[in-house]
Design goal:
CATH architecture of the largest domain: 3-Layer(aba) Sandwich
Strand content: 15-25%
Number of domains: 2
Number of strands: 17
Shape: globular
Bound molecules: pyridoxal-5'-phosphate
Radius of gyration: 21 Å
Low-confidence stretches: none
Strand order of the largest sheet: 4-12-11-10-7-5-6
Helix content: 25-40%
CATH class of the largest domain: Alpha Beta
Distance between the termini: 41 Å
Largest sheet: 7 strands, mixed
Mean pLDDT: 97
Length: about 400
């Protein structure tokens, strides 16, 4: 008897195989071209096969791949310096291989902070409805989504889930066992909802008032995706402070396709993370650090963030025109910068598949949202091409039944 497929049945990809990528395009083995507006879920910030990224991997791969953290890795110091120089509040960095690991480190750091201050009872992480923080055991508990928790044993203590954007509920939930508030400045999986800038500043004040830590999950919305290094920076003054966190978890775009994440903390917040408290075999290895340094430098080249802002404004105008043209398909626009999309009145999954059939790769999110997260190097020409394909797809979607998330 045939044994069938040997992969865990966790994914159900379409019958399509890409063999090559170039900039904002992916190609199948038959040479069919697709415009990639999902970019490996907000990862391929510089597009596919960026020459400087390719060169970095080639050069570093001939020198040194991996050492483990038993030895000093200069690339870690270089990259940590870059992030801490860019972020005035930041003082310490731990490198990981993924977003979930960056969040594990962030939450451990917050609990250790209180432990080392003599208040070990402060363990609760407060998070919000619609959040997504990863798929490890701790991060599904922080996420709190019943769908991700079902069948994995009892929910862990120390995680408190609150309604989204309910200030009173949040104030009431803060107690003598609270360690930190954990939030995405722009919810990704939850449906591309940006938290108002005033809310981020309010969270900062609330945390200071109660002596608790503010953790931002910028795994999806960070690394330049909204036109600044981190999305929360839109809420800060010219000094980079005001809506700033004590800890930020980053990954996805910061490695431009190489598995790389970071937990970035203030000196104060990281005070409890002394030798022996945390570790990673692969985290921050020389190959990852070479790529991370190149990615950081590319993001900080002249005009990179400006392009994100300019192109995303253009994309938003085009979305507004589509919404006017298809009031029966588009419900509302969502997102910030190049993490953007539309809540639809037709099934977002079906519309995504229509776009795919017409040569555009998109994603879905949250409450029936069509999600776009293109490479950050796209031009207005790419946007026009995407909009043309969306228009064709919406024409077809028009004939489908309405859908309520
Ligand atoms: C993707 C994502 C994660 C998890 O990152 P992994 O690299 O898949 O572990 C965590 N938080 C947010 C906001 C994400 O989008």
């Amino acid at each position: 008897m045939a044994k069938g497929d040997h992969l865990f049945d966790c994914y159900a990809p379409p019958p399509l195989e890409f063999t090559r990528g170039d900039g904002a395009y992916l190609y199948t083995h038959k040479g069919e071209r697709y415009l990639d507006f999902i970019a490996g879920i907000s990862v391929m910030a510089f597009g596919h096969s960026h020459p400087k990224m390719v060169q970095t991997v080639q050069e570093q791969s001939e020198k040194l791949w991996h050492l483990s953290n038993l030895f000093r890795i200069p690339g870690q110091h270089d990259l940590a310096n870059k992030y801490c120089e860019a972020l005035p509040w930041a003082g310490k960095v731990f490198f990981t291989n993924s977003g979930a690991e960056a969040l594990e480190c962030a939450m451990k750091t917050a609990r250790r902070y209180h432990f080392s201050k003599g208040t070990p009872e402060r363990i609760d992480i407060l998070s919000f409805q619609g959040a997504f923080h990863g798929r490890t055991h701790a991060t599904i508990n922080a996420t709190g989504n019943a769908k991700y928790l079902e069948g994995f044993g009892p929910a862990l203590p120390g995680y408190v889930h609150l309604p989204y954007n309910d200030h009173e509920a949040l104030k009431e939930a803060i107690s003598e066992t609270t360690a930190a508030i954990l939030v995405e400045p722009v919810q990704g999986e939850g449906g591309l909802r940006p938290l108002p800038e005033a809310c981020l500043r309010g969270l900062r004040e609330l945390c200071d008032e109660h002596g608790i830590l503010l953790i931002y999950d910028e795994v999806q919305c960070g690394a330049g995706r909204t036109g600044k290094l981190f999305a929360y920076e839109w809420a800060c003054g010219p000094d980079g402070l005001g809506g700033h966190p004590d800890i930020v978890a980053a990954a996805k775009g910061m490695g431009g396709g190489f598995p790389l994440g970071a937990c970035i903390a203030s000196e104060k917040a990281a005070a409890g993370m002394v030798p022996g408290t945390h570790g990673s075999t692969y985290g921050g290895n020389p190959l990852a650090m070479a790529v991370g340094n190149t990615a950081f430098d590319l993001m900080h080249e002249d005009g990179f963030f400006d392009n994100v802002t300019k192109v995303s404004n253009f994309l938003k105008q085009q979305f507004e025109a589509l919404k006017d043209e298809f009031p029966d398909v588009v419900d509302e626009l969502r997102g910030k910068g190049l993490l953007c999309g539309m809540k639809l009145k037709k099934p977002a999954k079906d519309v995504k598949n229509l776009a795919l059939a017409n040569g555009l790769l998109a994603g879905t999110a949250g409450d029936n949202v069509l999600r776009l997260a293109p490479p950050l190097i796209i031009t207005e020409e790419h946007v026009r091409e995407a909009i043309d394909i969306l228009r064709i797809s919406f024409e077809a979607a028009r004939k489908m039944d309405d859908f309520e998330a």
